[in-house]
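User: Design a sequence. Structure:
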């Protein structure tokens, strides 16, 4: 499969591109079910990695604002991390920048997050650069968080028909294949998506169509 090399290449290019701006840590995450799925991250020293297991984390108020407004949002303070306890870079570092991953006019599918350990104020030139960079990642992030990603093109067709409520026999007629092939395809789709029944696919597809942060939960300035 070419998926892994493509991910590594994208992460490597992103890490190099982010060397152009001040940052001590960055993170690229996709949006799913109102939370973030971490796809890649780097410590700011050219050693970016793709997590072995994708973590899911909650959205901060500033992240929700960036998603809702569809623009880069940053906060800079003279805050210093308190002594003791476990450091949470998004909450404890003095400068955090969130840039929505989306094409102009479309809802975001993820976030590019940058942070600095010392207070830093991003100039408009930096914000424009990060916004443009985040936009170029749209196709990559959308594909990475696509719940139907494990499926082949033929299996995706089966999944969509299942989502519309068609039975195995109806799918066989619609795709002009025999019933045994249709039932085998349905079983393959359910196994790959780790679903127990065909009825769950409709919910999965609906979530895929309507993915966006709830407006009522967005922090307003």
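Assistant: Done.
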């Amino acid at each position: 499969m070419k998926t892994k090399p493509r991910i590594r290449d994208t992460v490597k290019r992103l890490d190099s591109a982010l060397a152009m701006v001040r940052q001590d840590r960055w993170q690229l995450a996709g949006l799913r079910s109102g939370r973030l799925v971490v796809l890649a991250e780097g410590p700011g020293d050219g050693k970016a990695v793709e997590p072995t297991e994708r973590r899911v984390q909650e959205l901060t108020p500033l992240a929700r604002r960036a998603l809702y407004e569809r623009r880069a949002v940053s906060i800079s303070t003279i805050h210093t991390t308190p002594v003791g306890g476990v450091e949470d870079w998004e909450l404890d570092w003095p400068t955090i920048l969130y840039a929505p991953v989306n094409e102009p006019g479309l809802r975001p599918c993820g976030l590019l997050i940058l942070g600095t350990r010392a207070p830093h104020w991003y100039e408009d030139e930096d914000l424009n650069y990060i916004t443009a960079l985040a936009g170029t990642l749209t196709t990559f992030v959308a594909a990475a968080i696509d719940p139907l990603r494990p499926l082949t093109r033929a299996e995706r067709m089966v999944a969509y028909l299942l989502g519309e409520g068609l039975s195995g026999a109806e799918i066989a007629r619609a795709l002009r294949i025999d019933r045994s092939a249709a039932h085998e395809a349905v079983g393959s789709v359910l196994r790959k998506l780790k679903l127990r029944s065909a009825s769950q696919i409709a919910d999965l597809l609906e979530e895929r169509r309507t993915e966006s942060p709830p407006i009522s939960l967005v922090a307003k300035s």
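The chain has nine helices and six strands. Residues 95 and 120 are 6 Å apart (CA to CA).
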